[in-house]
Amino acid sequence: MRGKVIFTIHSHIDVEWLWDWGETQEVVLETYRNMVEILERYEKATCVSTSSIFLEWIKKKDPELFKRIKRLVEEERFEPVSGLYLEPDCNLPSEISFLKNIETGRKFLRDNFGKIPDIMFIPDSFGFPPFIPYVLREEGYRYFMTSKLNYEARCRFPYYYFIWEGLRGARVLACQTPGMYMGYPSPGGVYSAYWKVKRKHEIPLCIFFIGEGDHGGAVTPSMVEEVLNKRKDRWHPVDELDYSFGTLPSFFAELEKYKDKLPVYSGELYIKTHRGTFTTEAKIKRFLYRAERTLKEIEFLRGNIPELEDLWRFLLFYEFHDTLSGTCIRDVYERFDEGVKEFWKRAEDLRGEGWVNPDEREKIYFVEENKNFYRVDMPPRSRGGRKEKLISSWKGEGFEVDVKDGFLKLISGEVLVEEVFLKLVYEMEDDEESAWNILKGREEKVRCEVEEVREGYVRLSGKIGEKSRVKMELRVFSNLPFAVLDVEVDWREHWKMLKLGLKPSHPLRRYYTGTQMGIIERIPPFHPDASPEEREKWEVPFQRFFGTDTFRVWVYGKFGMSCEPDGLFLTLLRSSRNPHPSSIMGLRERKTDFQDQGIHRIRIFISPNKDINPEEG
Fold it and tell me: How far does Cα 352 stand from its chain's mean position?
């Protein structure tokens, strides 16, 4: 059987990265004009567009170009896919944000083109949690595609075509492209991509994207003519392949024929070279959690009012994968600081005062008022709650804390946590990759001195590295089912990482991380039964909590953790560097600096493994 290669144009555009969104708007207009001109010149050519926000900008700034795009959509040669407002980071936002992203993007496509896609194409995000197949099936999607899983130096993702099984057994037909999400269709590049798939799956079918990115640029006539004329060379027998332009629906229609022979891959799609993105730029990650919760509360109190939609669009914009992951230039985060002030003014005016629980599960809010502490019990979908003053004690509800032997020992019938401590990790200096990846070096335990101890309370402080200081305060109350640990860090380090460790009382055979809509059970990467893939997962993202069979650690707005021979670790801070535009674009006038310098305050809840949901009040 002759091999088949389907080509389509794709010009990937990062909303923000080595530039900010003001520059991106001009890039979008230039790029889409280029694509439209190419499609009008070459009647067989096709293209895809993944983010509705780009089409929204074009409609406002160049209505005539938008009319030309609509004609090409009607001809099924310009294909809006994904239905996303813009490409988010997928590890860190909640399922509510992901659904709102789909809802916002699809509404634009439905209102302007009369159609919504059933293909989710996310070329460049930094990992994909297992809730995504379930959401896709519930929202009417049939297929998933990415180009990101081959960003690996070792232990590469094993498949190009597969059935992705996520939470609750949901499955979608998935494709990891054999090449990039852009490229030049040289005979060598096309032949290599095709034979990667053919050798792995014995399927004579390949998708190949042509075009330029990540700063737009679209496609050149020579790229299109390479496909139409099927250029040959002496080393690559492309004459045994059928070339054709096509659409993603036409590609997946062909792939459906081989569906029964495809492997099933269960769980998250993990990117091993982007471990640092769970923690880098702590301030924007903290904003994410608080903003998501506030917007959910406003919707519960006031319904889906127009003012709320504007706030959601602001949040969705800053969930773009490079922005939320902390991998943009410094200018982006300075502009973010300015926009956040207006966001909170508007959000707080809409929300008003009082405690609110918009969720379907009961919560316990921990509240501090005038140096007094309270618990507020919140039934599902309620406001107001029942407030109770907390009583300091080393014995909480169902557990106790011992501070005599080491800093903290959590006990519930048996010892659950032997010790809580801080660890400083030195990272290798790397201006090119530091914002994305963790390059670990030597480690040292942080020495802290006990400054004050009284019933239910202990305060410690210590020096970190060369210039930084830390203060920790632990509080335990007789009428609260968890201990409260406040960590304040004056962070002045370069090329270092700070972790909070919890040493379990028993050797770990498994541990757990919360994720959107569920829990992931994990094998410690150092365990002898760990697979090569599991050994690579020594830093992972989590949602809300992580823990073992006996205890849980709840934290909001910090998303990286690790399982190591000396304990479970919450990654508090990293002092990586903002990427410099000169690394790619040759621009040196913009600023770069070490990230997360200054004061950081983190509140952590530690509990026996109970069915509770603590929240910050």
Answer: 30
